[in-house]
TrEMBL record:
Matches recorded under Gene3D superfamilies: YgaC/TfoX-N like chaperone
Protein name: TfoX/Sxy family protein
InterPro entries on file: TfoX_N (IPR007076)
Source organism per UniProt: Streptomyces glomeratus
Family annotation (SUPFAM superfamilies): YgaC/TfoX-N like (SSF159894)
Record domain TfoX N-terminal: where: 19-103
Length: 109
């Protein structure tokens, strides 16, 4: 599956030159990892965000968000946000910051 390279570039721009960030092809798209833990990613035209189990319900209440479903298995703690819901840089930045904060709170891999 191809992914939206424009969205990936917007994520790169938001994250800036953070030495803790790496990119890796995952889930048929592109993932951005902080010290080895996934923070956000691009799958198709959508944004994938790791919010953590405790923040899942609040994240799902936001516009365009749905549970991340891996081969028919919903993954609590992960959401997919419709590309149309992150068309504005401010909305995208909020999601990126949330995923980054969750990943930054995990021990390095």
């Amino acid at each position: 599956m191809a992914y939206d390279e424009g969205l990936a570039e917007r994520i790169r721009q938001h994250l800036g030159p953070d030495p803790g960030i790496t990119e890796k092809r995952m889930f048929g798209g592109l993932a951005f990892l902080h010290r080895g833990s996934m923070a956000v990613g691009v799958t198709g035209d959508d944004l994938m965000v790791r919010v953590g189990p405790k923040a899942t319900d609040a994240a799902l209440a936001r516009p365009g968000a749905r549970i991340f479903d891996m081969a028919g298995r919903p993954m609590r703690g992960w959401v997919v946000v419709a590309g149309s819901a992150v068309a504005e840089d401010e909305a995208l930045g909020e999601w990126i910051d949330e995923g980054y904060a969750f990943a930054a709170g995990l021990p390095p891999k």
